[in-house]
Write a structure and sequence with these properties.
The complex is a heterodimer. Chain A has one domain: Alpha/Beta hydrolase fold, catalytic domain (Rossmann fold, 3-Layer(aba) Sandwich). Helix content of chain A is 37%, strand content 19%. Chain A is built from 9 helices and 9 strands. In chain A, helix 1 runs parallel beside helix 9, helix 2 crosses helix 3 and helix 3 crosses helix 7. The longest helix of chain A is centred in the middle third of the chain and has 20 residues. Chain B contains 7 helices and 10 strands. Classes of the chains: A alpha/beta, B alpha/beta. Chains A and B meet through strand 1 and strand 2 of A and strand 1, strand 2 and helix 1 of B.
Chain lengths: 298, 272
């Protein structure tokens, strides 16, 4: 089931309780640099495990080429993996799948420390799961969901204020921005006032999100948060800090901003920069990922 | 379902073998050829559903990633049309070995259909049927749709410009050699004797689709005119069916993730 490309061995695996999850395990042909740690790459939306523009294949091979073990896999019902049969909600299903992947790595590769990598919904799954499992030592979050801030709206509006047409749409009640702002306020109020079930759609407004970051920091999980400039989710680099003032990120968080990149890292140059960044960051937190997992206290 | 790597040590191909459902008879086999680039990414879901449907219909299927794409080995800078045709040959051999079938059906979507047609021309005796789903008929038109300038536009004659070895097309690198190969695709000249049964499904018609076969071939009851290339052949022209269905290789807000089940059902029923 294995293939070898440029010093990297890739193996197709089936795992999970029903052997229904499909993944590709990438490893160095030579002994792994740190056999007890691994990188786990999560799906973006409904795009299967290779990622947009094959970016996860390139990242997997680059990391494996430097001695890391990497697993990219499909959530249940995505890509080649079958749907689950246990009636879990879509969000809970994905979180259960991450645990299955973690358990497979531990049982079959003796991996005890894992870095999760995700873009968009993958980043949301990573942050929601990360703080719940003591085996997680790092999170790479690309364009995760974060609440809009006052500065977000200001930055968003600034280039549009000089256009008369935009003012006309506001005055005539046809402004999409004003409409979405009102929707956001309503949505946020509803989510905060009730015990509404957590979904990826209401995650930005849910108290659970800030709590997840707080727990991750409390667990000394290292965070690499990467934001793209052409995404509509954020307009500036420090938005995550303003959005979560109660989280003491401190040295646990490294922030990176790709101002010219779109949400999927469309350009090869941006993907190359991203890959280099990941390689460098994963190497920089290696100390955090070799210690045994701390006992579960949260 | 069995995901696995096959091929040679320097050309590892990732594929997924889906056995025929239990209780279905026979050793019918089908190799599925994906489209390329972002079309591959978006159509992956539909191709998987097609494989599952064919499994229920009694087909053993192998769908695989072309070299330099998906989970297969290599990079796009290593890819060539000729190499991709060899990948289809390897997939055919692999599936026939797994199943023990004497022949197999080829099913291709978009660029995958054009590659499948070329493979058919190379080994007609081993292929019992061909299904071309919205095939790329003319490479020049395909590249234009992808936003690639024509050779003359990119490098006007007499200017003697240096064209880059690799360009980016929809976020994927494409070498000049591969561009030339794709540009040369012209299925209008697809006059090799087709297998007994060939289906062309078109959901996104373009003028060049009509050039695939004699006009009369589109009317199932019509005979083959003397002027048709099929008139000299001991076979029927391809059946062309135009269907109103979503295009799974295109991503937009309205159709992302949609699987055109009517097309999948039609392919399965036609093969049955």
């Amino acid at each position: 089931m294995a293939g070898v490309t440029k010093g990297v061995s890739e193996q197709a695996i089936l795992f999970g309780p029903r052997q229904s999850l499909v993944g590709i395990l990438a490893r160095p042909v030579a002994p792994a640099q740190s056999a007890s740690s691994a990188v786990l790459i999560l799906n973006t939306g409904i795009v299967h495990r290779v990622g947009h523009h094959r970016m996860y294949v390139a990242i997997s091979r680059a990391l494996a080429g430097l001695g890391h073990t990497v697993l990219r896999f499909d959530f249940s019902g995505i890509g080649d993996s079958d749907s689950r049969n246990d009636n879990l909600s879509p969000l809970q299903s994905c979180l259960a799948d991450i645990k299955d992947a973690m358990d497979w790595l531990e049982a079959n590769r003796h991996v005890t420390r894992v870095i999760l990598v995700g873009l968009c919904s993958g980043a949301d799954h990573a942050v929601l799961y990360g703080h719940t499992d003591p085996r997680i030592c790092g999170l790479v979050l690309m364009d995760p969901s974060i609440p809009a801030t006052v500065r977000f709206y200001f930055q968003y509006m600034k280039p549009r204020l000089t256009h008369l047409r935009n003012w006309m749409t506001v005055l005539t009640g046809r402004s999409r921005l004003v409409g979405s702002l009102i929707d956001e306020i309503r949505h946020a109020a509803r989510t905060k006032q009730s015990s509404e079930e957590l979904t990826l759609q209401n995650l930005r407004f849910h108290p659970c999100l800030e709590q997840s970051y707080q727990n991750a920091v409390a667990r000394s999980i290292k965070l690499l948060a990467i934001f793209t400039g052409e995404s509509t989710r954020q307009t500036y680099r420090e938005q995550i800090l303003d959005a979560f003032p109660n989280v003491s990120f401190g040295e646990h968080l490294r922030l990176e901003f790709f101002p010219g990149s779109d949400h999927t890292f469309f350009r090869q140059a941006d993907r190359d920069t991203l890959t280099r960044l990941l390689l460098e960051w994963v190497a920089s937190i290696s100390d955090n990922c070799v210690e045994p997992a701390p006992p579960q206290t949260i | 379902m069995t995901p696995f790597y096959f091929g040679t040590s320097d050309r590892r191909i990732f594929g997924i073998y889906e056995p025929a459902a239990p209780g279905t008879a026979g050793k019918r086999a089908a190799v599925l050829c994906y489209p390329w680039g972002s079309e591959y990414l978006h159509a992956h879901r539909a191709m998987r559903q097609l494989a599952i449907k064919l499994s229920v219909a009694g087909y053993h299927t192998l769908r695989f990633d072309l070299f330099g794409t998906g989970d297969s080995g290599g990079d796009m800078t290593d890819a060539s049309l000729a190499g991709w045709q060899n990948d289809v040959h390897m997939a055919l051999e692999e599936l026939r070995e797994i199943v023990g079938a004497a022949s197999a059906t080829l099913i291709g979507l978009r660029l995958g259909a054009a590659i499948a047609a070329n493979v058919l021309a190379q080994r007609p005796d081993d292929i019992d049927a061909l299904v071309m789903w919205d095939p790329i008929v003319r490479g020049e038109h395909y590249l234009a749709d992808l936003g690639v300038a024509s050779e003359a536009q990119a490098c006007p004659p007499r200017n003697g410009c240096d064209t880059p070895q690799t360009i980016e097309v929809q976020g994927f690198p494409l070498t000049q050699d591969l561009l030339r190969e794709i540009r040369s695709i012209d299925l209008r000249s697809f006059t090799t004797e087709p297998p007994a049964r060939t289906l062309i499904v078109v959901t996104d018609p373009s003028p060049s689709h009509a050039g695939l076969a004699a006009p009369s071939a589109m009317a199932s009851s019509a005979g083959v005119p003397a002027s048709s290339p099929y008139a000299q052949l001991n076979t029927a022209p391809p059946t062309i069916e135009f269907m109103n269905a979503a295009c799974p290789w295109i991503e937009d807000i309205a159709s992302t993730g949609v699987v055109p089940i009517t097309v999948i059902n039609r392919i399965a029923s036609w093969l049955a």
